[in-house]
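Batch job 17 of 40 flagged for manual review because the log was empty.
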Amino acid sequence: MKNNIKEFYLDFLNGHSYIMVDTKKNIVYEKPSGIWQKDDFELFHKLYKEKVIPLLKGERFAICNNAVYYKISLIEEEIKKHNEWLAQNNLAKVVLVVGGHVEKREHLEEVKNNLEPKIVNTLQAAEEWLREQGF
């Protein structure tokens, strides 16, 4: 594995999260799946605070969230707070991969705060958009 790539896994009762940080491109790739509870999201946020953000060394970064296998969970307030915190820590761009799921697209629109994410159907479209944004 390349030195600029760091990977993290979190397993929950009804889901999990895979996070890959590319410190060369300053892109955080998220791949959540399943149904998350509030406790699960607290572990996710803790991982960001303790491991992910320090890897980015204060530089602006982007998130590519592949939400195709994520199930709609009742953690909207936690997501909003996390997104506000990310913005305070130099999050510049967000792209969400929803795979054409209309209900998921609507749900993610509700929790975006001021992040103005780009919503696409494929990971390839997400990668192209991030390149266009300078990542």
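Reviewer: the log was empty due to a logging misconfiguration, but the result itself is present. The two ends are 20 Å apart (CA to CA). Unflagging and moving on to job 18.
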